[in-house]
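Researcher: Re-running this chain for the archive, since the previous output was lost when a drive failed. Same request as before.
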Amino acid sequence: MRKTDLLCRASLIASAFVGFTATPALAQDAAAESDSGEIIVTARRREESLIDVPIAITAISGDQLAAQGAIDITSLAEQVPNVTLEASRGTNSTLTAFIRGIGQQDPVSGFEQGVGIYLDDVYLNRPQAAVLDIYDVERIEVLRGPQGTLYGRNTVGGAVKYVTKRLPNEARLNLRGTYGSYNQMDGVITASSPLDSAGVVRVGGSFARLTRDGFGTNLTTGAENYDKNVYAARGTLEIHGTDFFARLSGDWIHDKSSARGGHRLIPSLQTAAPVLTNVFDTRGGLTFPAQDVEGWGVSLYLEAQPAEGLTFRSISSYRKDDSATPIDFDALPATDVDVPGYYFNSQSSQEFQVLYDSGRVHGMAGFYYLQADALTQFDVRLFTTIAGLTAFTNADIGTETTAVFGDVSFDLSDQLSLSLGGRYTWDERSAVLLRQNYLGGGSPVFGGAGVAFGAPGTNFRGKENWKKFTPRASLAYKPNDDHTLYASYSQGFKGGGFDPRGAGVNAPDLNSNGTREDSEIAAFLSFRPEKVNSYELGYKGRLMDRKLTVALAGFWADYTDVQIPGSVACTVGSLPSFCGVVSNAGKARLRGFEAEARLNLGGLILSGSLGYIDADFTNYVSNIASVPTDVSQYRKVQNTPAWSGNFNAAYAVPVGEGKVALGAGVSFKSTTYQFEVPNPYLDQPGYALVDASIVYTAPDKRWSLGVFGKNLTNERYKTSGYSFMAANATTGVLNAPLASALGREGVLTAFYGNPRQVYVTATLNF
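Model: Regenerated C-alpha cells:
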C-alpha cells in the first residue's frame, strides 16, 4: 500500500471517530489564551494560535492540570495519544519517555534520549530527576514527531515542553495544600511581587513539600515502598522593559523517597520463596547506598526587539544532578543480582535565536551548544553465584554538540503557506570506560572489601564524532480562520555513543597482533546515530459555530539504525556478568493516526483522544550462534501500545456566586511490551484507568476546594520490569522449566503504576 493511501485512510478513520463519538481530546484546551480566547502556544518559537500550527501538538494549561488533580508530568500520558511517560524501573524520579514508538528506556550514561524534555526552553540532557512535579506551571506542550529546526537539541521522537508562569505585575500569594490516601500530604506556596511602581522588576518564588506513605512495604528492611518524600523550589527575577525582557531563574529538587523495590513474578528458584500477594510489597535486601536524588539548575533568558518584526533571544543554562540508588533486581534478601549505583550528571548550554516576522515572511535562525558530562557507576553483586563476586562498571561519558538551525515560513497567499527548515548538527561523544571484577565483596566505590580479580574486561578511553543535516518541510492550507490542513516531512537524528555494559576484551582483534587497540575497542563498543524519516498529514478545525475543536493527524515514519541495548551478547572470561553490547540492529516502520477534540456545550464539555500506531520491526539482526540473523518477526516495539486514548466529561454549574465543576474520565492503553523481546510475565495487557473530581471555586477564584479520585477501579498494571531468564535465542521464548540467565534465584521483577488514590486539595489566592 502506498504511503499516501495509508495516510488518507488513517485520516478518514480518525474523522469517522470524531464524528461518531463526539468525544475526542484535550489538545485544543486552553494552554495560554489571548484576549479573544484563542489558544496560544510557542511550538514554533513564536506566539501562534494552536489551530494555526502545522504540527501535531497537544497543549494543556496549568489551570486544566490543576482542575484534574494532575500530580506530575507522567499524568500527560493519560491524555496525549501515542505517548508513554513513566518513572523508570526501580526509580521514583528518572523518566522513561516514548512518542510514536521512539524513545529511550536505559538511563545509564552513553545513551541519548529519543524524546526531548524542556524546562522553560532548556533541554534536560539526562532523564534523572526529569519526572517533574506539576506546580506553578503555565502550560505543557507535547510535540509529536522529530524536532530540530526550532528547538535547541535535535530529538528523534518528539518533545515535551514544560513552561512555568511569568510573574504578574502585582503582588500575589498562592497557597495549595493536599491530603489524601496513603497519608499524602502536599504543600505548595508561591509568592511574587513587583519591586518598583512600574512593575519593571519583579521577583517570585515557589516552595513545594510533597510526601506520601508507601503503597507497600519492604518486608526485609521494613522500609516504605513506593513512598514519596520530595522537596522542591523555584526562584525567578524578571525585568519587563518596553522592548526587552530578562528572566533569571533557578530550580532545585531533592527526592529522599525510599528505594523502589520490584515485585517478583515467580517463586525464587533456589529458596522457593513464594510470590507476594501485594504487588507493591518487596523483599529486596540491598540498602546501600541510601536512595537520594538531588538536582538543580539556573538559566538566563534574554529577549530584545530592537526593531519592528525583529527579535533576538539568548538562553543560557547550567544544570547538575546527583543520584544514589540501590536496585535489587532479584527482589530477595540474598545478594543475588544486587546493583548499587551512582549517577552524576552536569550540563551547560547556550542558545541564540534571531526571529523575523514581517509581512508574508516568518522565520528564525538559531545556534545551539551543549557540553555535558554523565558519570554512571554501579556494582553487579552475584554473591550467591560465586562468593563475593562483583562486576563493577565505571562509565564516564562526555557530550559536546554544536548545531545551527533555521525555519522560515512563506505565506504564498492568504490561504497557502510553505515552511522550510534545516539543521546541521556536530556531535562528539567521549568515553572513559572501566569494567573490573572483584572477589570477596563489593567494589571499593560502594564501600566493599572486594579485591580486583583478573584484568579489566574493559579499560578504554576514546571518542567518536558524527555530523548530520536534517531537513523539514511543511505545506499548510487555510481556507478560512477556522480550518487548517497541512502536510509535512521531517527527519530526526539521535546521536551515537558508547555502551558502558560492553566488554572490550570481546572486541575483534582486527590487527591480529594479539592485543586489542583502542580503535578496535571503540568500533566494538560504539554505536551509530539513529535516523527517522517522518511524513504527516493533518487537519485542525473549529466546527459547529466553534463549539467543536478537532485535530487529526496521520503519520508514517521509517526508523533506521535503531539502537538496541544488549543486542550483541558478550562475556568477561568464564565468570557470569551483566554484559551486553548495543548495536544498530533494527529498522522499524511506524504508522498510525491521532484524533483529538473538544466539544463545548455550555456548562458541559466533552473531550477525548484516540491514537493508533502500527509499529513493527522490519529488520532486527541478532547474533545466533555467532551468525547474524534477522529475528524481526519475533520482536516488538517497546513501550508503544497499538491503541491509546481517553474520554472526559466536565460539567460546571453556578452555586451562588461561585462554581462547582464535576469531572469524570477514562483513559486506556492496549497491550504494552516492556522490551523488544515479548515476555508473558512482564508485558502488560490492555487496561483502563478511571478518574473523577468535584471542585468548588469561590467568587474571583479567591479559594477552591476539590476532591479527586485517581484509578478508582484500583487497576493493577505493570509499567516496567527486569528479566534475566534463559530463553530461546531466536524467539525469546522463556525456556521450560524456567532457568536463570544471571544469578541463581531468577530475575523476573515488575514495577506497577499507582493504585487507587483519593485526595482533597484546597487553594487560597491573595
